[in-house]
Amino acid sequence: MIERALRDGKRVALPVVLPRGMIFRQIDTSWIRHLETGKLDLSEPTEVYPEFVPASVGGEILVLTPGRAFSVKGDRMGRGAGYYDTFFASLSGRAIKMAAAFDIQIVDEVPTDERDRPVDIIVTEKRADPLASLSQSQEKCVFTKCFIAIPPWEFPIWKGSQR
């Protein structure tokens, strides 16, 4: 998915966890050679890549969003640090937030608070559901100029099959 987006001329950025928060680095086609183990023992792009600045993108940004569980309404349970929720708040509604999960991770409700931001689309091995919070059709994802991703091996559907 990352390689395809880069081939299609989209700007792609991957997360880097810092001692207090998270940034994204904009990568290029050589990204796989420039990874290092980060704070949470995850592979992250090195400082070879510049920090991604969302304000530099005109239009929507597709954010592939991790989570431990998701509600049928799109509420998301992450790891509890609020990194993605903080990032979403900084995008001022310009993000299409898409989750990739196993169908078993979709439940009726997950605990939330006022800082939590729901996802707009949930894709599982059984379905791809645009949720009520998505203001337009899924087609606008096709025209997105850039997307923020987590490395594929961090999505549950890839766990154990990559890396």
CA gyration radius, whole angstroms:
15 Å
Q: Using the alpha-carbon principal axes, give the shape.
A: globular
Structural class: mainly beta
- Strand residue percentage: 25-35%
Output the helix-strand order.
HEEEEEEEHEEEEE
Number of helices, where a helix is a run of at least 4 consecutive DSSP H or I residues: 2
Unreliable spans are: 132-163
Count of extended strands: 12
Average pLDDT for all residues: 76
**Strand arrangement, major sheet:** 2-1-12-5-8-10-11
Termini separation comes to 15 Å
Largest sheet: 7 strands, mixed
Helix content: under 10%
Structure characteristics:
globular; 163 residues; 12 strands; mainly beta
Structural features, described:
- 9% of the residues lie in helices and 29% in strands.
- With 163 residues, it is mainly beta.
- Strand 1 (11-18) and strand 2 (21-27) form a beta hairpin.
